[in-house]
Amino acid sequence: MAVKIRLKRLGKIRAPYYRIVVADSRTKRDGRVIEEIGKYHPTENPSFIEVDSDRAQYWLSVGAQPTEQVTAILKLTGDWGKFKGDKDAKSTVQVAEAKAAFVADESKKPVLKPKAEKPAKAEEAPAEAADADETTTDEA
């Protein structure tokens, strides 16, 4: 049985994402697989690549043939170099930066106000405005 390491397409039209799978070469592209060994999301920036290195090394060692696309991915993760005997093979996959934690701006007033405070503030507002006018005339 000829075994291939290839991509299995998932997702919607124009929004693909792939699983890196080990399958018999005679099965359909998205058909039955022997094992899933990774994920690849090309639409993200940078592309998300995740490969189970141990399983990839095992399948390469027993003769599974990767497709051109999977070979390129394995070269990025360093697994292809390890398989070929390069002990210094390293992953060159770019990792997305973590999103910064949301911090509310304390200088701005909150948009939502409790219902009970609305009438009380409406009565106090004209009195405060009158006090403000008196202080400005006293200073002048």
Automatic annotation (TrEMBL):
Gene Ontology biological process terms, A to Z: translation
Superkingdom of the organism of origin: Bacteria
Biased composition (Basic and acidic residues): 108-124
GO annotations of cellular component type: cytoplasm; small ribosomal subunit
Region (Disordered): 108-140
Bias (Acidic residues) ranges: 130-140
Database matches in InterPro entries: Ribosomal_bS16, Ribosomal_bS16_CS, Ribosomal_bS16_dom_sf
GO molecular function: structural constituent of ribosome
Gene3D superfamilies (UniProt xref): 3.30.1320.10
Entry keywords, A to Z: Ribonucleoprotein, Ribosomal protein
Family: Belongs to the bacterial ribosomal protein bS16 family.
HAMAP family xrefs: Ribosomal_bS16 (MF_00385)
NCBIfam families assigned to the protein according to its UniProt record, in alphabetical order: PRK14520.1 (NF011093), S16 (TIGR00002)
Protein name (Swiss-Prot/TrEMBL): Small ribosomal subunit protein bS16
Source species of the chain: Agromyces mariniharenae
Lineage: Bacteria, Bacillati, Actinomycetota, Actinomycetes, Micrococcales
